[in-house]
Amino acid sequence: MKNIEFLVVVIATFVVAVTGGSFYQDFEITWGGGRAKILENGNLLTLSLDKASGSGFRSKNEYLFGKIDMQLKLVPGNSAGTVTAYYLSSLGPTHDEIDFEFLGNMSGDPYTLHTNVFSQGKGNREQQFHLWFDPTKDFHTYSVQWNPASIIFSVDGTPIREFKNLETKGVPFPKNQPMRIYSSLWDAEDWATRGGLVKTDWSQAPFTASYRNFNAQACVWTSSGSSSSCSSSSGQSLDATGQAKLRWVQKNFMVYNYCTDTNRFPQGLPPECSSA
Ligand SMILES: *[C@@H]1O[C@H](CO)[C@@H](O)[C@H](O)[C@H]1NC(C)=O
Protein backbone atom coordinates (compact mmCIF):
# COMPACT_ATOMS: atom_id res chain seq x y z
CA MET A 1 0.00 0.00 0.00
CA LYS A 2 1.25 3.38 -0.83
CA ASN A 3 1.57 5.98 1.80
CA ILE A 4 0.21 9.29 1.00
CA GLU A 5 1.90 11.97 2.89
CA PHE A 6 0.00 15.00 3.70
CA LEU A 7 2.17 17.97 4.25
CA VAL A 8 0.46 20.23 6.64
CA VAL A 9 1.83 23.68 6.35
CA VAL A 10 1.12 25.84 9.28
CA ILE A 11 1.48 29.36 8.18
CA ALA A 12 2.67 31.36 11.10
CA THR A 13 2.84 35.05 10.64
CA PHE A 14 3.72 38.11 12.59
CA VAL A 15 2.04 41.38 13.00
CA VAL A 16 3.93 44.35 14.22
CA ALA A 17 2.04 45.46 17.21
CA VAL A 18 2.62 48.56 19.15
CA THR A 19 1.18 47.65 22.49
CA GLY A 20 1.25 49.38 25.78
CA GLY A 21 -2.39 50.16 26.26
CA SER A 22 -3.04 48.59 29.57
CA PHE A 23 -1.77 45.84 31.82
CA TYR A 24 -5.24 44.34 31.63
CA GLN A 25 -4.93 44.07 27.88
CA ASP A 26 -1.33 42.90 27.59
CA PHE A 27 -0.68 40.75 30.68
CA GLU A 28 -2.16 38.15 32.95
CA ILE A 29 -1.38 37.36 36.53
CA THR A 30 -0.07 33.84 36.85
CA TRP A 31 1.05 33.43 40.41
CA GLY A 32 0.57 34.65 43.95
CA GLY A 33 -3.16 35.23 44.12
CA GLY A 34 -3.92 38.70 45.46
CA ARG A 35 -0.23 39.53 45.76
CA ALA A 36 -0.11 40.66 42.13
CA LYS A 37 -2.36 43.61 41.35
CA ILE A 38 -3.28 45.66 38.33
CA LEU A 39 -4.14 49.18 39.45
CA GLU A 40 -4.93 52.67 38.17
CA ASN A 41 -7.07 51.56 35.23
CA GLY A 42 -4.40 49.19 34.01
CA ASN A 43 -1.54 51.70 34.13
CA LEU A 44 0.25 50.18 37.09
CA LEU A 45 1.04 46.65 38.11
CA THR A 46 2.49 45.67 41.47
CA LEU A 47 3.97 42.39 42.63
CA SER A 48 4.45 41.56 46.26
CA LEU A 49 6.27 38.96 48.28
CA ASP A 50 5.65 37.79 51.82
CA LYS A 51 6.82 34.78 53.75
CA ALA A 52 4.05 32.59 52.30
CA SER A 53 4.51 33.40 48.59
CA GLY A 54 5.82 35.63 45.87
CA SER A 55 3.86 36.59 42.77
CA GLY A 56 4.19 36.93 39.03
CA PHE A 57 2.66 37.76 35.68
CA ARG A 58 3.20 37.05 32.00
CA SER A 59 2.33 38.62 28.68
CA LYS A 60 -0.67 37.36 26.77
CA ASN A 61 1.25 37.66 23.51
CA GLU A 62 4.30 35.80 22.31
CA TYR A 63 6.88 37.85 20.46
CA LEU A 64 9.60 37.09 17.95
CA PHE A 65 11.88 40.12 17.61
CA GLY A 66 11.13 43.67 18.53
CA LYS A 67 11.86 46.35 21.07
CA ILE A 68 10.26 45.79 24.43
CA ASP A 69 10.37 48.42 27.16
CA MET A 70 9.12 48.23 30.71
CA GLN A 71 9.52 50.64 33.58
CA LEU A 72 10.26 49.05 36.95
CA LYS A 73 10.60 50.43 40.43
CA LEU A 74 12.25 47.86 42.64
CA VAL A 75 11.68 46.78 46.24
CA PRO A 76 12.97 49.64 48.44
CA GLY A 77 14.71 49.55 51.80
CA ASN A 78 16.15 46.28 52.98
CA SER A 79 15.46 44.11 49.94
CA ALA A 80 18.17 41.56 50.73
CA GLY A 81 17.18 38.04 49.67
CA THR A 82 14.51 39.20 47.22
CA VAL A 83 14.78 38.70 43.48
CA THR A 84 12.74 40.53 40.87
CA ALA A 85 13.00 38.61 37.61
CA TYR A 86 11.94 40.22 34.36
CA TYR A 87 12.59 38.12 31.26
CA LEU A 88 11.52 36.79 27.92
CA SER A 89 11.32 33.02 27.54
CA SER A 90 10.03 30.40 25.16
CA LEU A 91 10.07 27.78 27.99
CA GLY A 92 10.84 24.07 27.59
CA PRO A 93 14.09 22.09 27.50
CA THR A 94 15.49 23.86 24.44
CA HIS A 95 14.18 27.26 25.38
CA ASP A 96 15.51 30.64 24.42
CA GLU A 97 15.55 33.23 27.13
CA ILE A 98 16.64 36.83 27.68
CA ASP A 99 16.95 37.69 31.37
CA PHE A 100 17.05 40.68 33.62
CA GLU A 101 17.14 39.75 37.31
CA PHE A 102 17.40 42.29 40.07
CA LEU A 103 19.04 40.94 43.21
CA GLY A 104 18.07 42.92 46.31
CA ASN A 105 20.44 44.17 48.96
CA MET A 106 20.52 45.71 52.39
CA SER A 107 19.46 49.36 52.65
CA GLY A 108 22.14 51.54 51.13
CA ASP A 109 23.92 48.69 49.35
CA PRO A 110 23.57 48.44 45.59
CA TYR A 111 21.22 46.11 43.76
CA THR A 112 22.86 43.73 41.33
CA LEU A 113 21.38 43.60 37.86
CA HIS A 114 22.01 40.09 36.61
CA THR A 115 21.62 39.33 32.88
CA ASN A 116 21.76 36.12 30.90
CA VAL A 117 20.98 34.81 27.43
CA PHE A 118 19.85 31.25 26.76
CA SER A 119 19.78 29.85 23.29
CA GLN A 120 18.35 26.43 22.62
CA GLY A 121 18.41 25.55 26.32
CA LYS A 122 21.96 26.66 27.02
CA GLY A 123 22.68 29.66 29.23
CA ASN A 124 25.80 30.18 31.35
CA ARG A 125 26.25 33.64 29.89
CA GLU A 126 25.90 35.80 32.97
CA GLN A 127 26.91 39.41 33.14
CA GLN A 128 26.14 41.44 36.24
CA PHE A 129 26.07 45.16 36.85
CA HIS A 130 25.55 47.71 39.55
CA LEU A 131 23.45 50.66 38.43
CA TRP A 132 24.41 54.33 38.29
CA PHE A 133 21.24 55.29 40.21
CA ASP A 134 19.07 53.91 42.99
CA PRO A 135 16.53 51.70 41.17
CA THR A 136 14.13 51.80 44.12
CA LYS A 137 13.56 55.57 44.21
CA ASP A 138 11.91 55.97 40.81
CA PHE A 139 10.78 54.07 37.77
CA HIS A 140 13.49 53.35 35.21
CA THR A 141 13.16 51.82 31.76
CA TYR A 142 14.60 48.38 31.08
CA SER A 143 14.61 47.41 27.42
CA VAL A 144 15.35 44.47 25.22
CA GLN A 145 15.97 45.15 21.56
CA TRP A 146 15.96 41.80 19.84
CA ASN A 147 16.46 41.21 16.15
CA PRO A 148 18.18 38.55 14.03
CA ALA A 149 21.54 40.35 14.34
CA SER A 150 21.70 41.02 18.05
CA ILE A 151 20.09 41.31 21.45
CA ILE A 152 20.70 44.60 23.20
CA PHE A 153 19.88 45.12 26.88
CA SER A 154 19.42 48.79 27.83
CA VAL A 155 18.69 50.78 30.94
CA ASP A 156 17.11 54.20 30.39
CA GLY A 157 18.24 54.01 26.78
CA THR A 158 21.87 53.24 27.67
CA PRO A 159 23.00 49.88 26.30
CA ILE A 160 24.57 47.69 28.98
CA ARG A 161 25.02 44.47 27.03
CA GLU A 162 24.95 43.26 23.47
CA PHE A 163 24.71 39.59 22.52
CA LYS A 164 25.52 39.36 18.84
CA ASN A 165 24.42 36.73 16.44
CA LEU A 166 27.58 34.66 16.00
CA GLU A 167 26.02 31.64 14.34
CA THR A 168 28.90 31.78 11.88
CA LYS A 169 31.13 30.84 14.84
CA GLY A 170 28.78 28.06 15.86
CA VAL A 171 27.00 29.94 18.65
CA PRO A 172 23.25 29.34 18.54
CA PHE A 173 21.17 32.52 18.51
CA PRO A 174 17.56 32.93 19.67
CA LYS A 175 15.67 33.49 16.46
CA ASN A 176 13.14 30.72 15.89
CA GLN A 177 11.16 30.49 19.08
CA PRO A 178 8.64 33.15 20.03
CA MET A 179 8.88 34.23 23.65
CA ARG A 180 6.51 35.59 26.25
CA ILE A 181 7.43 38.25 28.78
CA TYR A 182 7.47 37.03 32.37
CA SER A 183 8.08 38.71 35.67
CA SER A 184 8.09 37.52 39.22
CA LEU A 185 9.10 38.64 42.67
CA TRP A 186 10.34 35.83 44.88
CA ASP A 187 12.56 34.93 47.77
CA ALA A 188 16.07 33.67 47.09
CA GLU A 189 17.74 34.28 50.41
CA ASP A 190 19.81 31.14 49.93
CA TRP A 191 21.94 32.78 47.26
CA ALA A 192 20.83 36.22 46.13
CA THR A 193 22.55 38.64 48.45
CA ARG A 194 26.29 38.31 48.94
CA GLY A 195 25.99 34.72 47.87
CA GLY A 196 23.36 33.94 50.54
CA LEU A 197 25.16 35.45 53.54
CA VAL A 198 22.46 38.08 54.00
CA LYS A 199 18.98 36.65 54.60
CA THR A 200 15.57 38.15 53.94
CA ASP A 201 14.29 40.36 56.76
CA TRP A 202 10.68 39.21 56.92
CA SER A 203 9.79 41.97 59.38
CA GLN A 204 9.91 44.25 56.28
CA ALA A 205 7.37 42.16 54.34
CA PRO A 206 5.38 42.51 52.20
CA PHE A 207 8.01 43.54 49.65
CA THR A 208 6.66 45.30 46.57
CA ALA A 209 7.96 45.98 43.05
CA SER A 210 6.03 48.16 40.57
CA TYR A 211 5.67 48.22 36.79
CA ARG A 212 4.34 50.80 34.37
CA ASN A 213 4.61 52.11 30.80
CA PHE A 214 5.00 48.79 29.04
CA ASN A 215 5.70 49.41 25.38
CA ALA A 216 6.37 46.78 22.75
CA GLN A 217 7.15 47.54 19.15
CA ALA A 218 7.42 43.91 18.45
CA CYS A 219 6.36 41.12 16.17
CA VAL A 220 3.48 39.26 17.73
CA TRP A 221 3.31 35.57 16.96
CA THR A 222 -0.01 34.48 15.54
CA SER A 223 -0.89 31.14 14.03
CA SER A 224 -3.57 32.40 11.67
CA GLY A 225 -2.90 33.14 8.05
CA SER A 226 -2.57 36.84 7.70
CA SER A 227 0.29 37.78 5.44
CA SER A 228 1.56 40.99 6.90
CA SER A 229 5.29 40.89 7.42
CA CYS A 230 7.14 42.21 10.38
CA SER A 231 9.44 45.14 9.81
CA SER A 232 11.02 45.00 13.27
CA SER A 233 12.81 41.84 12.28
CA SER A 234 15.43 43.55 10.18
CA GLY A 235 18.92 43.23 11.60
CA GLN A 236 20.56 46.05 13.44
CA SER A 237 23.28 46.24 16.04
CA LEU A 238 24.77 49.09 18.04
CA ASP A 239 26.07 52.18 16.26
CA ALA A 240 29.27 53.98 17.33
CA THR A 241 27.51 56.10 19.98
CA GLY A 242 25.86 53.00 21.40
CA GLN A 243 29.20 51.17 21.44
CA ALA A 244 30.78 54.04 23.39
CA LYS A 245 27.98 54.02 25.98
CA LEU A 246 28.20 50.26 26.28
CA ARG A 247 31.94 50.50 26.95
CA TRP A 248 31.31 53.16 29.62
CA VAL A 249 28.85 50.88 31.43
CA GLN A 250 31.00 47.79 31.08
CA LYS A 251 34.07 49.62 32.37
CA ASN A 252 32.41 51.33 35.33
CA PHE A 253 29.44 49.22 36.39
CA MET A 254 30.03 45.63 35.37
CA VAL A 255 30.71 43.44 38.40
CA TYR A 256 30.76 40.00 36.77
CA ASN A 257 31.42 38.85 33.23
CA TYR A 258 31.40 35.17 32.31
CA CYS A 259 33.66 36.05 29.41
CA THR A 260 36.54 36.85 31.79
CA ASP A 261 35.90 33.97 34.21
CA THR A 262 38.70 31.67 33.12
CA ASN A 263 38.39 29.52 36.29
CA ARG A 264 34.90 28.61 35.29
CA PHE A 265 35.83 27.65 31.74
CA PRO A 266 39.13 25.78 32.07
CA GLN A 267 38.72 24.33 28.57
CA GLY A 268 38.59 27.84 27.12
CA LEU A 269 36.11 30.69 27.14
CA PRO A 270 32.91 30.31 25.10
CA PRO A 271 33.40 31.22 21.43
CA GLU A 272 31.24 34.36 21.58
CA CYS A 273 33.61 35.84 24.17
CA SER A 274 36.38 36.59 21.70
CA SER A 275 34.17 39.04 19.82
CA ALA A 276 31.97 40.32 22.63
C1 LIG B 1 25.23 44.10 47.91
O1 LIG B 1 26.16 45.00 48.42
C2 LIG B 1 27.49 44.50 48.52
C3 LIG B 1 28.35 45.55 49.20
O2 LIG B 1 28.39 46.74 48.47
C4 LIG B 1 27.98 44.15 47.10
O3 LIG B 1 29.26 43.56 47.19
C5 LIG B 1 27.00 43.20 46.43
O4 LIG B 1 27.39 42.99 45.08
C6 LIG B 1 25.61 43.77 46.47
N1 LIG B 1 24.62 42.96 45.76
C7 LIG B 1 24.27 41.71 46.09
C8 LIG B 1 23.19 41.14 45.28
O5 LIG B 1 24.80 41.07 46.98
Describe the structure.
With 276 residues, the chain is mainly β. The protein has a single domain (2-275), classed as Jelly Rolls (Sandwich), CATH 2.60.120. 6% of the residues lie in helices and 40% in strands. The protein contains two helices and 16 strands. Strand 7 and strand 8 form a beta hairpin. The model is unreliable at 1-12 and 225-229 (pLDDT under 50). 2-acetamido-2-deoxy-beta-D-glucopyranose binds at residues 103, 105, 109-110, 112, 192-194.
Task: Describe what is shown at a glance.
This protein is about 5% helix and about 40% strand. It has about 280 residues and is mainly beta. It has one domain (about 1-275): Jelly Rolls (Sandwich).
